TrEMBL record:
Record-listed ATP binding positions: E248, R255, R270, E300, F340, R412, K418
Gene Ontology molecular functions: DNA ligase (ATP) activity
Residues of the ATP-dependent DNA ligase family profile domain: 328-453
Keywords: ATP-binding, Cell cycle, Cell division, DNA damage, DNA recombination, DNA repair, DNA replication, Ligase, Magnesium, Metal-binding, Nucleotide-binding
Entry EC number(s): 6.5.1.1
Presence of keyword Membrane: no
Lineage: superkingdom: Archaea
Active site as annotated: K250 (n6-amp-lysine intermediate)
Reactions that this protein is recorded to catalyse: ATP + (deoxyribonucleotide)n-3'-hydroxyl + 5'-phospho-(deoxyribonucleotide)m = (deoxyribonucleotide)n+m + AMP + diphosphate
Name of the featured protein: DNA ligase
Function comment: DNA ligase that seals nicks in double-stranded DNA during DNA replication, DNA recombination and DNA repair.
UniProt family annotation: Belongs to the ATP-dependent DNA ligase family.
Ranges in a coiled coil: none
Length: 560
């Protein structure tokens, strides 16, 4: 039996190391000493997931439940706890400090008790996840309180971070994959293949230990990682590189992976979460439109507006998130299915078959009504024609796929290339910033952006940007903003004097209640600092609104 303290010490050691190779080595040696049950848990734990990525189980602990539990276990008030949080910006530090200062009256169970094992923590997490109904929050808090009251400060640090699924030790799936490979004498590629088929690092680790990685196969009911697309250089360039391409619309919707066995249908989202209950009409169209006993299908669900054009992405999200009383939302936001791939048919995995063969099979089993149309061509004019139609219809552009390519689960490679219109950039005013974490704690790492309202002259928020900033820029930006810091806000957030303009690229502008402008940028990325621009030259909310209106081809060719 391995203690949770052992795990906490491992995390603490890894947290202090910068290099991924060294992190993987330390983790590998820890994994190699675990028994089977622990090996099922630890690979997810170190990445900050209480349960495997593919599992349906959600812990469902929010900060307030956590602070409540911590307060009861430590005797500190929630105000004291929030003060520590404001000072440190890290729930782990909060838990360690509160438990470290534990009042004597609450000490009894700790001194007398046995030390927590990894399995104890996991089984409490399971009870927390299973709590439902009216009393669920108090059941969750009680179990967490038990864990904290049995913990030393170091254990409390990682229990708190794990409960909020934010480990901050710089271990992602890649490092765990390398560690499993190293611990059990497999290659990282073999481990990754197993992971892509199962989404469960713990299961992969156990099979690797038994030398049975090759037993892991695509199975109905267990989502496989989805194949992803790269950004292409443009129609002529991308087509020249691929030679002949299978061309499809790039639908503006949300990815779905559908598992069918008889009338049983299970749907997984892009993040491999089960969303079956939210999407009854997709279930129905599979039952009606797919003529085979069992299959795993890949496609896009599109929300159709009254004018026939796709609705904005956030409308689809409303469908994916809705679990109860689905009918009302389904009426308002009806979904259509466009299948573009098949990876498993009646007992046979198809991932290693070339796309052209998978497409032949897909056309054989699926009704054309639910199929994404596909054209195989090497003529750039033909591709340009398809692209124009897709954009005019309100979709994103086109996908070019290599007809000879296998289904590369979990990979973003050059066999699927997306071509989309280049979105314009916005010049926005930086009005706030947030200090980084861990290695980046001495740098300002993300920046709050605003756009002036032409009517009031006030700067209104449109969101945060943290992408597109490398280590070198971090230092430069921190220097640039150091003298502009006005007030330190909550936690790690500061307000800065509005002086600097960022040119920011993004995928899309969304309507949003989260920011005062009423808009938010999806996937914002810093292009450059516009030190050549004065504050008055920032893009106004009027421009944000007009870009919002013209995006997604609403005024594009052919849409009138
Ligand atoms: P992106 O999210 O920009 O990386 O683009 C990849 C996503 O485009 C996929 O995950 C799908 O959700 C979506 N998509 C839309 N149409 C297609 C298509 N015909 N083939 C593959 N992916 C598509």
């Amino acid at each position: 039996m391995t203690t949770f303290l052992g795990f906490a010490e491992l995390c603490s050691k890894i947290e202090g190391i910068a290099g991924s190779i060294e992190k993987a080595e330390i983790l590998a040696s820890f994994l190699s000493d675990l028994d089977e049950a622990e090996l099922a848990i630890v690979p997810s734990f170190v990445t900050g997931s209480p349960f495997p990525a593919s599992s349906e189980i959600l812990l469902g602990v929010g900060p307030s439940t956590l602070y409540d539990a911590l307060s009861r276990a430590s005797g500190s008030s929630t105000t004291e706890i929030k003060d520590i949080l404001r000072r440190t910006g890290d729930v782990g530090a909060v838990a360690a400090e509160a438990i470290g200062k534990r009042r004597p009256s609450t000490l009894s169970s700790f001194i007398g008790g046995d030390s927590l094992s990894i399995l104890d923590v996991y089984s409490r997490f399971l009870q927390i996840a299973r709590a439902s109904g009216r009393r669920s929050q108090s059941v969750k808090a009680k179990n967490l309180q038990y864990l904290f009251s049995e913990s030393s400060p170091l254990e409390a640090r990682y229990i708190a971070r794990l409960a909020l699924e934010d480990m901050r030790i710089g271990v992602g799936e890649g490092i765990v994959r390398d560690a499993i490979a190293k611990a059990f004498g497999a290659t990282p590629a073999e481990v990754e293949r197993g992971y892509n088929f199962t989404g469960d690092l713990g299961l992969v680790a156990r099979r690797a230990k038994e030398g049975r990685l090759s037993d892991l196969k695509v199975e109905i009911g267990r989502p496989i990682k989805m194949m992803l697309a790269q950004i292409g250089s443009g129609i002529p360039g991308s087509l020249a590189e691929m030679g002949t391409a299978a061309v499809e619309w790039k639908f503006d919707g949300s990815r779905v992976q559908i598992h069918k066995r008889g009338d049983d249908v299970e749907i997984f989202s892009r993040r491999l979460e089960r969303v079956t209950r939210s999407l009854p009409e997709i279930v129905a169209s599979i039952r009606e439109g797919v003529r085979t006993e069992s299959a795993i299908l890949d496609g896009e669900a599109v929300a159709r507006g009254e004018d026939g054009r796709p609705l904005p992405f956030q409308e689809i999200l409303k469908r994916f998130r809705r679990k109860y009383k689905v009918e009302g939302t389904a009426k308002k936001i009806p979904l259509e299915l466009f299948l573009f791939d098949i990876v498993y048919l009646d007992g046979h995995p198809l991932i290693d078959e070339p796309l052209r063969e998978r497409r032949r099979i897909l056309e054989e089993v699926a009704d054309p009504k639910i199929l994404a149309a596909q054209t195989v061509t090497s003529d750039p004019e033909v591709v340009a024609g398809i692209y124009e139609k897709a954009v005019a219809a309100g979709h994103e552009g086109v996908m070019l796929k290599s007809p000879a390519s296998p289904y590369a689960a979990g990979k973003r490679g050059k066999n699927w290339v997306k071509i989309k219109p280049v979105m314009e950039t916005l010049d926005l005013v930086v009005v706030g910033a947030r200090w980084g974490e861990g290695r980046r704690a001495t740098f300002l790492g993300s920046f709050r952006l605003a756009s002036p309202d032409p009517d009031t002259g006030r700067l209104e928020d449109v969101g945060w940007v943290a992408t597109g900033i490398n280590d070198e820029m971090l230092a430069e930006l921190t220097d640039l903003f150091r003298d502009l810091v006005l007030v330190s806000g909550e936690g790690m957030v500061v307000e800065v004097k509005p002086e600097v303009i960022f040119e920011v690229a993004f995928e899309e502008i969304q309507k949003s209640k989260s920011y005062s402008s009423g808009y938010a940028l999806r996937f914002p990325r810093l292009v450059r600092v516009r030190d050549d621009k004065a504050l008055e030259e920032a893009d106004s909310l009027e421009r944000v609104a007009s870009l919002y209106a013209t995006q997604r081809g609403r005024n594009g060719p052919g849409s009138g």
